[in-house]
Write a structure and sequence with these properties.
With 175 residues, this protein is of the alpha+beta class. It has helices at residues 35-42, 50-60, 65-81, 123-134, 138-148, 156-169, and strands at 6-9, 14-18, 21-25, 30-33, 45-49, 85-87, 99-104, 107-112, 118-121.
Length: 175
């Protein structure tokens, strides 16, 4: 994997946050991710290059860059072999680390923990949000929403794009 490669988590795992550590289950193996591994897992959203992940981990954990580089690459390679991460060419839209969200009935409540900004999305907006969180790219989001709402209007792509632009402008999403 090259320093410019971007990786994101696949949907083939179950993960539970345990006070900063991560309990990860891939269907065969139960693994506790601690320290640098948990830090990296939380940032595998396709927005950062391997080089950026190495630099951030070295800074946060005050470790020599050469050692962190070797360890990070070995960890990412292990995740890739297990099918838990995949390369991404265009990560599309990403949920910033400071934004939390929860489904509440048919709606989704978003909150930017840094600014305190909150927004509630309608059931249709909630479907779009969940598709963005899982898929990222506009084409993938539109395809998923069209599958969920077969009677969606022809201008669905423009409507989804408009909502995503609003969320980016509000700091609740980033490109």
């Amino acid at each position: 994997m090259t320093p410019a490669a971007r990786l994101r988590r696949t949907a083939t795992y179950a993960a539970e946050d345990l006070d900063g550590d991560v309990l990860l289950y891939d269907g065969d193996t139960l693994q506790l991710l601690e320290g640098v591994a948990a830090y990296l897992w939380a940032r595998l959203d396709g927005s950062r290059t391997v080089e950026e992940l190495v630099a951030a981990a070295a800074q946060v954990f005050a470790a020599p860059a050469e050692q962190v580089d070797r360890d990070v690459r070995a960890f990412l390679f292990q995740l890739e072999i297990r099918g838990l991460v995949e390369p991404v060419e265009d990560a599309g839209h990403l949920v910033p680390d400071t934004v939390g969200w929860v489904r509440d009935g048919g709606e989704v409540l978003l909150i930017d923990l840094a600014s305190g900004r909150r927004r509630t999305l309608s059931p249709t907006g909630a479907s779009i949000w969940e598709a963005v969180a899982d898929e990222g790219t506009l084409d993938a989001v539109v395809a998923r929403v069209r599958d969920e709402y077969p009677d969606a209007p022809p201008e669905l792509r423009e409507q989804v794009g408009q909502l995503l632009d609003e969320l980016v402008a509000e700091g609740l999403l980033r490109r």
